[in-house]
């Protein structure tokens, strides 16, 4: 079995490693890299072993003339390797081959022609530059993973206010109501609250109240005893009981049937439940966080949501802004999801074109962050370009998505402000006018101008 060779001519102080994949006949340049710890592999299989057992920021590959199988093996090696910068070494005569040129263009950070002669110092400088970029990428990935874990993605005033509210709410063991449009990330905010609370070591149990038929929600929430109903062959612990010591997240609480709202209210008041079909009273210590895209105050007036339950849930509240209201966050989020979906994989795409960024900034994002995730993920897979275009994102050509005029921007800002004030006040025009600092007559005129009636 062949062994991986390691260059011994290195300073004891150096810690920079480079993988040298020597696939073509010719001079071995490992001895030229005196300030590097060189791990040499003489085949793709040996290179894979080296990648499995070492951590590299940069790699050299002497590719020479490759047949179809060798080229395919090298491509798979690079694609499956952890993120690192590859530098090609090749004889000049092989650069006349279009397939080889495409291979270098698609997969390599840089290339040098052989023999090196007096170019060795320049190669070492390029290696150092690539190694440094790799370290920066690694640090950024660590920071990104931390942000992803904490769900702290965004820099706009609107989302920074939400982050501030998360920190405040997390320290208080009370029920929380999170409101906002679909796709804005309400469950992520609930998880962030849980992760920062004293209950962080306990379970986080989620239930979508709108995803189950009415006859199943009670059993899911409160559990059931064996024989409680047809098909109940054994005892089942409900979501409330499973969340003991932790947090229960009730998504789309506005979809909870009116007949079950009284049962949830009793748990919030007394912190006790009874399993369906049982008579044992169980004390459950669980914090409840609820979320909805509905206007619960309007639903109270319509008689489809209990007012007493609303006030029990709305002890603390967080309103999540729509993506279009998060000025400056769209590009940041797009790059965040791009890195998330490409990390550890090789893709032809390297990011977004400036026209794609402009198109995203002009898009209204009715599906909010969930829509962005879908568009970015699809574009990464389907794009045949080096940079994702507006068309790849399904946003059409960018010629029609130019910077809006001042009049258009003013109208958009007015619509957003009116919608938010009406939503916050439950369509009470007098209160909304006070929030906006205008008269009722002016607000009515603006509502007519922007064709806004009741906002939900």
From TrEMBL:
Keyword check for Nucleotide-binding: yes
Entry's Gene Ontology BP terms: regulation of DNA-templated transcription
Gene3D superfamilies in the record: 1.10.8.60, Homeodomain-like, P-loop containing nucleotide triphosphate hydrolases
Pfam families according to UniProt: AAA_lid_14 (PF25601), HTH_8 (PF02954), Sigma54_activat (PF00158), VpsR (PF20161)
Recorded superkingdom: Bacteria
Record flagged with keyword Metal-binding: no
Cited InterPro entries: AAA+_ATPase (IPR003593), AAA_lid_NorR (IPR058031), Homeodomain-like_sf (IPR009057), HTH_Fis (IPR002197), P-loop_NTPase (IPR027417), Sigma_54_int (IPR002078), VpsR (IPR045343)
Keyword terms: ATP-binding, DNA-binding, Nucleotide-binding, Transcription, Transcription regulation
CDD domains: AAA (cd00009)
GO terms for MF: ATP binding; sequence-specific DNA binding
UniProt domain Sigma-54 factor interaction: residue ranges: 152-381
The protein's name: DNA-binding NtrC family response regulator
């Amino acid at each position: 079995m062949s062994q991986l060779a390691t260059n011994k001519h290195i300073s004891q102080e150096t810690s920079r490693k480079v993988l040298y994949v020597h696939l073509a006949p010719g001079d071995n340049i490992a001895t030229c890299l005196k300030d590097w710890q060189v791990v040499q592999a003489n085949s793709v299989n040996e290179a894979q072993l080296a990648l499995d057992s070492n951590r590299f920021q940069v790699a050299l590959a002497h590719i020479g003339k490759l047949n179809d199988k060798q080229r395919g093996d090298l491509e798979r090696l690079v694609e499956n390797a952890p993120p690192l910068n590859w530098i090609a070494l090749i004889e000049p005569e092989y650069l006349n081959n279009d397939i080889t040129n495409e291979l270098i263009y698609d997969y390599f950070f840089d290339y040098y022609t052989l023999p090196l002669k007096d170019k060795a110092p320049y190669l070492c400088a390029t290696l150092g530059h690539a190694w440094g970029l790799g370290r920066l990428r690694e640090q950024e990935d660590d920071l990104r993973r931390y942000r992803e874990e904490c769900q702290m993605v965004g820099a706009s005033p609107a989302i920074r206010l939400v982050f501030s509210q998360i920190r405040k709410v997390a320290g208080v063991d009370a029920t929380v109501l999170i409101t906002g449009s679909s796709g804005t990330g309400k469950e992520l905010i609930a998880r962030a609250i849980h992760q920062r609370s004293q209950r962080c070591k306990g379970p986080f149990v989620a239930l979508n109240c709108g995803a189950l038929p009415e006859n199943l929600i009670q059993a899911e929430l409160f559990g059931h005893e064996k024989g409680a109903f047809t098909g109940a062959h054994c005892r089942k612990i409900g979501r409330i009981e499973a969340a003991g010591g932790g947090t229960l997240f009730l998504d789309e609480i506005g979809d909870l049937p009116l007949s079950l709202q009284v049962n949830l209210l009793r748990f919030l008041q007394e912190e006790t439940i009874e399993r369906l079909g049982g008579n044992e009273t169980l004390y459950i210590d669980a914090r409840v966080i609820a979320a909805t895209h509905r206007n619960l105050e309007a639903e109270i007036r319509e008689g489809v949501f209990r007012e007493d339950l609303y006030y029990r849930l709305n002890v603390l509240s967080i309103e999540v802004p729509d993506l279009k209201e998060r000025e400056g966050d769209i590009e940041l989020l797009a790059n965040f999801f791009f890195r998330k979906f490409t990390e550890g994989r090789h893709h032809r795409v390297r990011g977004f074109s400036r026209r794609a960024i402009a198109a995203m900034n002009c898009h209204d994002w009715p599906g909010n962050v969930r829509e962005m995730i879908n568009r970015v993920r699809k574009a990464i897979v389907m794009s045949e370009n080096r940079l994702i275009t507006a068309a790849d994102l399904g946003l059409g050509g960018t010629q029609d998505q130019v910077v809006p005029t001042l009049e258009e921007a003013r109208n958009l800002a007015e619509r957003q402000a009116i919608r938010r004030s009406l939503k916050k006040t439950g369509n009470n025009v007098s209160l909304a006018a006070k929030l906006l600092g205008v008269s009722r007559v002016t607000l009515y005129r603006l509502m007519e101008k922007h064709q806004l009636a009741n906002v939900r």
